[in-house]
Specification:
The chain has 361 residues and is mainly alpha-helical. Helices cover 40% and strands 1% of the residues. A two-stranded antiparallel ribbon has the order 1-2. Helix 1 crosses helix 9, helix 2 (36-46) packs across helix 7 (155-167) and helix 6 (139-147) runs parallel beside helix 15.
């Protein structure tokens, strides 16, 4: 050992902590200004299974608040008789996005996204004319629509309200926002921004560039082994104009947007917010833990000729991988399993509705 090597190493570690501490606190995500009565209406609709064709599913069936509005499954459930072929994405900070779904095929606004989720045959399979009549038959909805300034219950009003509720789902009090990072997380942050290069795609306050990339994630074989999942996959591929969809044995991702060869198997960069609540990971749930995710990228991603050229082996040792995981955990904040986000029947009585009307006036 060289003279004073321990002291030198200690100074380097200390200096690294000081440098990282200055950049440790990120800009917290600011919630949108949402009308309370409109958001409360959206909240009730979000938990209402009457918004699905056979009344078996609500939005909250797959988007559960205790899991940062995911479902904890590798591949999500779907409408009666089928199952889905992708992992349920988190709704945390969903109102800040510019494109939605893993393939980014929806890129206008949350109102349109809500409409597709409700009406798509393998999702909630609802005829919105029928939904409107169901809402009109509920006196609580009649009052809540009026209190929110929407008149009588309508499809457009319902979609507007659900989108408003989703706008309230914003990450809060993550260590990265409060600056309360551990020494391991600080070291992991330095790796994230430096040697590991994660920041090249995971940037901004939501830690995503909102672009599509191919990282070589392997396909989930359950999509083709499970007939109910395969039915949903074939339906989707046919609707999106994919050729030879009956024989297709890979998820083409954002290819459906432009049908370009270079877009094959590309998927939107996921937000890294709320990772501790949203396992398993990737668009098809093939990686169960954050440790597996870090191992995947440390090995240079998966094998794919169209893989993003930035995805290369990272040469991280075990200690560095552990630090990187600690930093990733620091991007998760308060649980959404609170009264603000969970529907409880007692929340919706006429006294509250009258209060909302008085506030609106």
């Amino acid at each position: 050992m060289k003279p004073h090597s321990s002291l030198t190493k200690g100074l380097k570690v200390g200096l690294l902590a000081i440098l990282c501490a200055g950049a440790a606190q990120a800009e917290a995500i600011k919630p949108k200004d949402v009308d309370p009565a409109l958001a409360e209406l959206g909240k009730r609709l979000f938990y209402d299974a009457r918004l699905s064709g056979d009344t078996s599913l609500a939005c909250a069936s797959c988007h559960q608040p205790d899991k940062a509005f995911t479902d904890g499954l590798a591949l999500s459930e779907a409408y009666s008789g089928v199952s889905h072929f992708r992992n349920t994405p988190t709704l945390a900070n969903v109102g800040k996005r510019a494109a939605w779904n893993h393939d980014g095929r929806l890129g206008t606004n949350l109102n349109d996204v809500t409409r597709e989720m409700i009406t798509e045959t393998y999702l909630m399979n609802m005829d919105m004319r029928l939904m409107q009549e169901r809402l009109k038959q509920d006196p609580v909805y009649v009052e809540m629509f009026r209190a929110a300034g929407l008149g009588e219950p309508s499809n457009g009003g319902a979609r507007k309200a659900i989108a408003a509720f989703q706008d309230t789902i914003v990450s809060r009090n993550a260590p990265i926002d409060t600056g309360d990072l551990t020494a391991a997380a600080l070291r992991g942050q330095a790796l994230f921004n430096g040697k590991a290069g994660c920041v090249s795609c995971h940037s901004g306050d939501r830690y995503t560039d909102d672009k599509v990339h191919n990282t070589g994630v392997q396909d989930n074989p359950e999509i083709w082994a499970d007939p109910e999942r395969h039915i949903a996959f074939v339906t989707y591929a046919k609707f999106m104009g994919v050729e030879n969809y009956m024989n297709l044995r890979q998820d083409l991702g954002a290819f459906v947007r432009d049908h370009s060869y270079t877009s094959r198997r590309t998927f939107l960069t996921p937000s890294l917010r709320e990772l501790t609540h949203t396992a398993p990971y990737m668009h098809n749930g093939t990686l169960a833990t954050l440790e597996e995710v870090v191992d995947f990228y440390n090995a240079g991603g998966g094998a794919d000729t169209l893989k993003d050229q930035r995805i290369r082996p990272l040469d991280l040792n075990d200690s560095e991988k552990s630090d990187l995981v600690e930093f990733l955990k620091s991007l998760s904040g308060d649980s959404f399993d609170t009264d603000a986000y969970v529907w409880r029947k007692d929340d919706y009585d006429y006294t509250l509705i009258e209060n909302w009307r008085e506030t609106a006036n």
